[in-house]
Specification:
Number of strands: 5
Number of domains: 1
Helix content: 25-40%
Order of helices and strands: EEEHHEEH
CATH architecture: 2-Layer Sandwich
Structural class: alpha+beta
CATH topology: Ribosomal Protein S8, Chain: A, domain 1
CATH class: Alpha Beta
Distance between the termini: 9 Å
Number of helices: 3
């Protein structure tokens, strides 16, 4: 896995939502969790998301989770291990 993003000092996670049950079941029948990340600088999100959200799609496929974005927030839904790994990416 590559190092942290090269612009990690510029991307500040303003606040983290609490992990909460999503009501869905993930891999192996485990309950899915959702964590919402809020970013302070919207102008950097295209670098994170990639063209046509390509980077988000690759993260979803690699970690078997769901990512959805709205404004400056990114919701990560999946099993607890996958959600934690996605936050690191």
């Amino acid at each position: 896995m590559p190092d942290a993003t090269p612009f990690s000092e510029d991307v500040v996670i303003e606040s983290e939502g609490e992990i909460r049950p999503s009501g869905r079941h993930g891999k192996g029948g485990l309950k899915s969790l959702t964590r919402v990340l809020s970013f302070s600088d919207n102008s950097l999100l295209p670098l994170l998301y990639g063209e046509y959200n390509k980077n988000l799609s690759q993260i979803e496929a690699a970690l078997s989770l769901e990512l959805s974005s709205k404004g400056n927030e990114l919701a990560i839904t999946g099993d607890e291990d996958a959600v934690t790994k996605a936050q690191i990416v």
